[in-house]
């Protein structure tokens, strides 16, 4: 389901140039891989003062018309350990699972999409799914978009899910493929409050007839 993720970026938008909304929440989400992520898919109170230590990274993107946000990384170890954020260890476990022989059809996560129903992110191969994504866009690229040290594979999945559920842009492509993209705002906690850092627009490609994620790209500007 949900995790912590990261990305690559070539341009950083100045905070003064865009008025981005403040994330809302919180809630607790545990996925099939044991990742614990603090997130909310329903409107709630604004992040309270002192809720997270300075340096915490929060991602906020529209999903199904609701405010869906994710604490992507927390500095230091005590809070991260307390809430189950395991970062690189989780990434290694998922990548190892998808590297095993015969794992290409294994479902990493099933996600709802606005135009193609339930779409599965598979371990896949060199041409489709998570293995294809990481082959072409390694963890370092995704981490550059996250700006913190959380689980990159969870961050990738959060961006994919947000784009599929509430796309700001979509485009029908050849060979029964469709591109989805939505703006995801990234905040850092500064003096106890979320301070907008950048907005990214990941590009997610799905096979409409096979109902699978083909690839995802950590783009700052959508390619849809």
Described by strand count, sense and barrel closure, the largest sheet is: 6 strands, antiparallel
- Helical content stands at 10-25%
Task: Give the DSSP E fraction (strand runs of 2 or more residues).
Answer: 25-35%
Structural class: alpha+beta
Explain briefly what this protein structure is.
The chain is 21% helix and 32% strand.
Keywords for this entry:
224 residues, alpha+beta, six-stranded antiparallel beta sheet, four-stranded antiparallel beta sheet, 5 helices, 12 strands, 32% strand
Structural commentary:
- The protein is an alpha+beta fold and 224 residues long.
- Helix content is 21%, strand content 32%.
- It contains five helices and twelve strands.
- The strands form three sheets. It has a six-stranded antiparallel β-sheet with strand order 1-2-4-3-9-10, covered by helices on one side. Strands 7-8-11-12 form a four-stranded antiparallel β-sheet.
- Strand 1 (28-30) and strand 2 (36-40) form a beta hairpin.
- Residues 1-45 and 77-86 have low confidence and may be disordered.
């Amino acid at each position: 389901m949900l995790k912590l993720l990261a990305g690559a970026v070539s341009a950083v938008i100045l905070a003064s140039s865009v008025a981005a909304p403040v994330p809302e929440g919180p809630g607790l989400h545990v996925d099939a891989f044991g990742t614990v992520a603090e997130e909310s898919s329903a409107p709630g109170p604004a992040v309270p003062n002192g809720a997270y230590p300075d340096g915490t990274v929060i991602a906020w993107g529209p999903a199904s018309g609701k405010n869906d946000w994710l604490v992507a990384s927390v500095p230091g170890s005590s809070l991260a350990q307390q809430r189950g954020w395991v970062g690189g260890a989780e990434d290694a476990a998922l990548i190892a699972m998808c590297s095993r022989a015969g794992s290409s059809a294994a479902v990493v996560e099933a996600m709802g999409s606005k135009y193609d129903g339930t779409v599965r992110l598979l371990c896949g191969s060199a041409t489709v799914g998570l293995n294809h994504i990481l082959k072409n866009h390694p963890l370092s690229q995704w981490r550059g978009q996250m700006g913190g040290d959380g689980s990159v594979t969870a961050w990738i999945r959060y961006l994919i899910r947000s784009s599929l559920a509430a796309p700001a842009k979509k485009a029908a492509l050849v060979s029964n493929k469709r591109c989805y993209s939505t703006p995801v705002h990234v905040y850092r906690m500064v003096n106890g409050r979320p301070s907008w850092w950048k907005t990214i627009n990941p590009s997610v490609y799905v096979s409409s007839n096979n109902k699978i994620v083909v690839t995802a790209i950590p783009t700052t500007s959508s390619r849809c």
